[in-house]
Amino acid sequence: MRRGFTLLEVLVATTIMAVAVTALVGNLTGSLRNLDRLTQKDRAATLAKRKMEELLLKPALPRFQRIAGPWDPPHASDQQGWQLRVTPFDVPPAPMPGMPVLDRLELEAWWMDGGSRRTYTLTGYRPGVLTEADLLGGILRE
Questions:
Q1: pTM for this structure?
Q2: 75-105 burial code (b ≥16 CB/10 A, e <16)
Q3: pLDDT of 40 strictly over 80
Q4: How many whole angstroms separate alpha carbon 134 and alpha carbon 86?
Q5: Measured by CB atoms within 10 angstroms of the end CB, which terminus of the chain is less buried, N or C?
């Protein structure tokens, strides 16, 4: 009795292996793409949290205006940055200058991924005081 594989058995086994390897490589490519996206988003979240902590400590940030800028080195690039908008969140009825208010800070971290712009938004709150400019320039308009 001769032992061994026939040519047909070898071809069938090779075909099955080729299909399995092709599927595995396709899944690996997709996983690497997802890992890259998650890494970018994680980096943006970390930078946004740092920037939010820094901005929450600044005593005077203008309300109703967009403040934007690049990241501090070594993260600075023209392909990524941040923007902030400060608005009163909890305004009492009949607001007057000097009244306490809760400010909402909305920080958007952005970066370019290929040809599309990706964003990560972080929101923080802090106590503030209404000014005459706030009443004339923003709250009365909204």
A1: 0.70
A2: eeeeebbbebbbbbeebeeeeeeebebebbb
A3: yes
A4: 11
A5: N
The tokens describing 108, both together, are 């958007």
Q: Which fold, 7-139?
A: Pantoate--beta-alanine Ligase; Chain: A,domain 2 (3.30.1300)
DSSP state of 75: S
What residue segments make up the domains of the chain, in order of their start? 7-139
What gap in Å lies between CA 109 and CA 118, rounded to an integer?
8
Tokens 């070898």 appear where?
A: 10
Q: Are 81 and 49 in contact (CB under 8 A)?
A: no
Q: What angle is formed at CA 101 by the lines to CA 96 and CA 106, rounded to 5 degrees?
A: 130
- 50-80: per-residue pLDDT in tens? 999 999 988 888 888 899 988 877 766 778 8
Give the gyration radius of the chain's Cα atoms. Answer: 27
Site of tokens 């997709």: 30
Q: What is the pLDDT of residues 74-126, one digit of tens each?
A: 766 778 899 999 998 878 788 888 888 899 999 999 988 888 999 999 999 99
